[in-house]
Design goal:
The chain is α/β, with parallel strands linked by helices. The chain has 2 domains: about 130 residues, Rossmann fold (3-Layer(aba) Sandwich), CATH 3.40.50.300; about 90 residues, no CATH class. About 35% of the residues lie in helices and about 30% in strands. The protein has 8 helices and 10 strands. The strands form 2 sheets. A 6-stranded mixed β-sheet has the order 6-7-8-4-9-10, sandwiched between helices. A 4-stranded antiparallel β-sheet has the order 2-3-1-5. Helix 3 crosses helix 4 and helix 3 crosses helix 5.
């Protein structure tokens, strides 16, 4: 059974040059981000997550809301294995795919076709698996002959087409997103949105951070509201959205 369980998970970020910063900057950070403290060595730390306990089960479609700096992206990165908790425990059952940074690992000097292999390896695909998906990726990107050109010659839109086509060929059990992923020109956005809806329908657990009430209510059955690295509210999507966004 696919699941994610966090027990008292905290994540601290040491700030080694904090002594050179003004008290005013500390106060501003305290108001907008995680809590500020110090560790056993006396270094200033920002606590991005503070004793988070959350259990996600198969069928959950979870939205994350909160002000900028509330800990949404940090929590997503903990769930996707990018960050390790400073304290507490996390247990993940199921194949987890993160779409937080779809351009991660794209080599500008390599061709589009070479980058399919490179990015695929970072996503955990074997060479044989990537060969199986290669034609679908190439066709979806609509880059044609440019796939034999170095990515540094691509426009921003072409770069995103390639990255999106590679990253969304997966069939994840757990899908993690920082905002809804739909990119490119208007024609490609329609394809991208359709692909994203197909991914969401197939995944067993969805976690998406967003500032869009409509997107969250149309895709999520549960919303977690983070504030200063802590869970302020966790419940059904309608109830939490009403409390966070207002009626």
């Amino acid at each position: 059974m696919t699941s994610i369980t966090l027990e008292n998970v905290s994540v601290d970020f040491p700030i080694y040059n904090a002594r050179t910063r003004s008290l005013k900057n500390h106060v501003i950070s305290l108001a907008t981000g995680g809590t500020i403290g110090s560790n056993a060595e006396g270094h200033v730390i920002i606590r991005g997550l503070d004793a988070i306990s959350v259990a996600l089960k198969e069928g959950d479609r979870v939205g994350l809301v909160g002000h900028n700096g509330s800990g949404k992206t940090t929590l997503l990165r903990v769930m996707s294995g990018v960050y390790h908790p400073t304290s507490g425990n996390i247990a993940i059952r199921g194949k987890c795919t993160s779409l937080i940074n779809i351009s991660l690992g794209i080599d500008p000097e390599a061709t589009g076709r070479q980058n399919i292999t490179i990015r695929g390896a970072l996503l955990g695909f074997t060479n044989s698996e990537m060969e199986f998906h290669r034609k679908a990726i190439e066709d979806f990107s609509e880059l044609g002959g440019f796939l034999d050109m170095p990515v540094r010659t691509y426009s921003t839109g072409m770069h995103l087409r390639l990255a999106f086509a590679i990253s969304t060929v997966v069939q994840p059990e757990i899908l993690i997103m920082d905002e809804w992923l739909a990119t490119g020109d208007e024609a490609f956005k329609d394809k991208a949105n359709q692909r994203m809806h197909e991914l969401v329908d197939q995944t067993k657990i969805l976690i998406v951070a967003s500032h869009s009430r409509d997107l969250l209510l149309s895709n999520c059955n549960r919303i977690i509201w983070l504030e200063h690295g802590r869970v302020r509210m966790d419940g059904d999507a309608e109830t939490v959205a009403a409390a966070y966004f207002g009626h």
